[in-house]
Amino acid sequence: MDDIFSLKNKVIVITGGFGLIGQEVCDAFAASMATLVILDLVEEKKLESFANELTSKYNNKNISYKVDITSKDIVDKTVSDIVKRFKKIDVLINLAAIDAKFDSKIKDIPKMSFEHFPLDIWKKSIDTNITGTFIITQSVIKQMINNKNGNIINVASTYSLVAPNQELYNINDGPQNIYKPADYVISKSVIPSFSRYLATFYGKLNIRANTIVPHGIYNNHSKKFVNNFNKFTPLGRMCDLKEIRGPFIFLASNTSSYMTGSTLVVDGGWTAW
After folding, report:
1. What mean pLDDT comes out for the span 208-213?
2. How far apart are CA 128 and CA 131, in angstroms?
3. Does residue 19 fall inside a structural domain?
4. Smaller CB count within 10 Å for the chain: N or C?
5. Which residues 6+ apart lie within 8 Å of 80 measured at CB?
């Protein structure tokens, strides 16, 4: 009996493949013997080193490209090169996104509350999270149409389903000055609808599109934040990074062959309140 979870010989293109979730998912796909094409904006040597590490670890095929998904010319050229190498693209994972945060990287913003949010950061987030996702999906789906087969997995957020509870970010005494900003919430809200559009438009060509919604993945958060998070989620804890592997493998494999236009929520019950 065939292993319906198998990803062997599947060519998987993943944007944002060098990020926190991206690296974990790439490791899971490589372990499942997929052929990985890792796209990100970090320097080429880092991407190449990561791809080579996975190849050494699992003896599968991996390549990488430094790609700005907001550039149509660069994306089209990269997709064309991928198809020349592998003759197909079976799965596209749209994971690349900007999540503006109140941290040392954004020093000049006194507050992240809506009335203070900078227009330039808003535009940059929309350009990447929505337009960039549109550009690469449009380019890849042309190849999937030729093959009459394809699988697109878009990555959203619980904030595409519910509004952020800003009390989660209020971990200090006194007035709240850290917020989940509008750019990420609103841009991610588009993603489930984008998946549904693709699913209904291309279903008869055997091209599927689904959304995965991860939430609360632990990444060296402060003890105060973790304690606050635990109070707001039914499972009473944050998500371990490894817990995201199974849902991605499920949607990328033939196990989910009758799923399209769906949203797979992996949030510890956050949106069930």
Report:
1. 98
2. 6
3. yes
4. N
5. none
Are the C-beta atoms of residues 67 and 45 closer than 8 Å to each other? no
pLDDT, residue 111, reads: 55
Task: Please say if the pLDDT value at position 20 is more than 80.
Answer: yes
**If you average pLDDT over residues 262-267, what whole number do you get?**
98
Please name the amino acid found at residue 38: I
Residue 145 falls inside a structural domain: yes
Cβ–Cβ < 8 Å for 7, 33: yes
With a pLDDT cut of 90, the percent of the chain lying above it is: 82
Q: How many domains does the chain have?
A: 1
**Full DSSP string of the chain:** ---TT--TT-EEEEETTTSHHHHHHHHHHHHTTPEEEEEESS-HHHHHHHHHHHHHHH---EEEEE--TT-HHHHHHHHHHHHHHHS---EEEE-------SSTT-TT-S--SGGG--HHHHHHHHIIIIIIHHHHHHHHHHHHHHHT-EEEEEE--GGGTS---GGGG--SSSS------HHHHHHHHTHHHHHHHHHHHHGGGTEEEEEEEE--B-SS--HHHHHHHHHHSTTSSPBPGGGGHHHHHHHHSGGGTT--S-EEEESTTGGG-
Question: Residue 235 is which amino acid?
Answer: L
CA distance linking residue 67 with residue 75, whole number of Å: 7
Residue whose tokens read 């599947």: 10
